[in-house]
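pinning this so it doesn't scroll away 📌
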Amino acid sequence: MVARLALAAAAVAMLATPAAAQTWKIDTAHSTASFTVRHMMVSNVHGRFGKLEGTIVYDGKNVASVKADAVIDATTITTDNEKRDAHLKSPDFFDAVNHPRITFKSKRAEAVGKGKFKLIGDLTMRGKTKEVVLDVDGPTDPVTVQNAQRIGATATTTINRQDYGVSWSRTMDGGGYVVSDEVRITLELELIKQ
């Protein structure tokens, strides 16, 4: 009887103990950070950054356990147009020489439905930090490839670039701006369990 009670108490304790946190590293070869911005109020221009690094801590079960720390290399920006890319790296936009890192550090995560959650954290760009909310689809169920577990997720948010000092624009004849203030950001992540 005592042995049974001890066993039951141990089982309850195990259920009450949260799952151990696991560290997942962003697979830089299979992850992207991209953005979309309206140009001259008639079309969308798409761009991406060539280098995205970071880690996610996740217990594998509860999205509220997610903690993220990511770095985007602003010097690797590309829109497939050399002249435009040089302008985007200049002080008019990202000022990549003086501010080469764009960072995101999460504060908390909130489940919003099956396979979806919100990740709230601080986005820092050009030395300015603002809280943003990432809408996340995922994480996927893990798969094992070459003895390594992998999961994936897609995160999106929309920011006002003026909040970060990315303020260059011109007014067009007849009204409107050459570059919109609203920028949509998409992160496609593949993560490797460490």
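📌 and the second one:
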Amino acid sequence: MQTDKDMNMPTTAAGLRRAEEQLTAKALEAGLSRTGDETQRLLHELQVHQIELEMQNAELRQAGEEMETALEKYTDLYDFAPVGYFTLDRDGVVQAANLTAAGLLGIERARLLGRRFGHFVADEARPAFAAFLTRVLESRAKEVCEVALLKGGTQPLFVQIEAVAAASGQECRAAIIDISTRRQLEERLDILHTDLAARATELVAANIELEAFNYTVSHDLRKPLTLINSYCQVVQELCGSKLDGQCRGYIRDMYEGTLRMNRLIDTLLDFSRITHVEMRQEKVDLSTMAKNVARELKVTAPERRVSFRIPEGIVVHGDAALLRVVLDNLMGNAWKHTGNREETVIEFGMTDSAGKPAFFVRDNGPGFDMALADTLFIPFQRLPGTDAEGSGIGLATVERIVRRHGGRIWAEGKPGAGATFHFTLE
């Protein structure tokens, strides 16, 4: 059990040594004047304190080792951090820096200490940096700025500096982050924005020209076609009996050619207007719409043996008029390309694609080579190996409408095994 005197003993190593020396002196003095019992007691106390001193020394050594380990870890974290760290005094002189900071500036750390940080700031950025340092030391709050530095004295380096003043107010600690890559990306983005704005202007001009072209096509081009068509009819009515069969064939070909040209003009105008038509989002029953398309197709050729498979209850949200164009073209293509089949099957349905509903039109027609799948939606491209008439605009029109609904369209087929066209709407 410790005595009051033990409780008051110093706890430091130097204090324990002094206490030991005092006890030794007392023991020697007591040995000259006191009894043997008192000498024995003093020697016992001296031994106890000797043990305590050794324990304190062991604890101090352990604490010192732990402190050295912690300092080594701190030094590693400080020196090799992904961010540069500086300590600057009120004049902007570098008092301390980690290895990352020295690397950012392209200089050895030993040569960096004691130099003004402003020496590494680009000339045009020095006033802004001086104002920034003043704000940091006066506000005592974290301040942020972006400046251009000179790496190695010449190469520009864009950095972001975050600094806060120390409690003394005589220095500040700053973290420096290299943002050169970000600045380069921002500059590229600015260039892209400029190019995009220029292209948008060009697109507006192109749209104006397209509208002018549409007007020319719809009015000026139709006039001579209408004139040719009318004269063909007049010649047939007035002079048909006086002409030989070859001449009547020529006139008939001219007349039918004007009709095809008129239909092509209508198709081109519709195709150009697809992207300009304002969309109206509403509930659309695709099942009912597909049945109406099927009924109209049957009227055009009632002698054909065609089975339509259309399930009930396929309902979506979209523009009803544009979606009708989609079904007209897809089911109309299936109808045309199965014309030489004894029994035709055309199916409209819904399936799943990547967790979203996808709709399809499938037929048992001649199909196509999948190597040509990507060209089917290009204007004026027709399925090779088929004799079906068409302008080559239908699938391109469908692709535009589907894209305006936020979806995509793709085709699957195999020569002699039919074709399937899938599309999503969002």
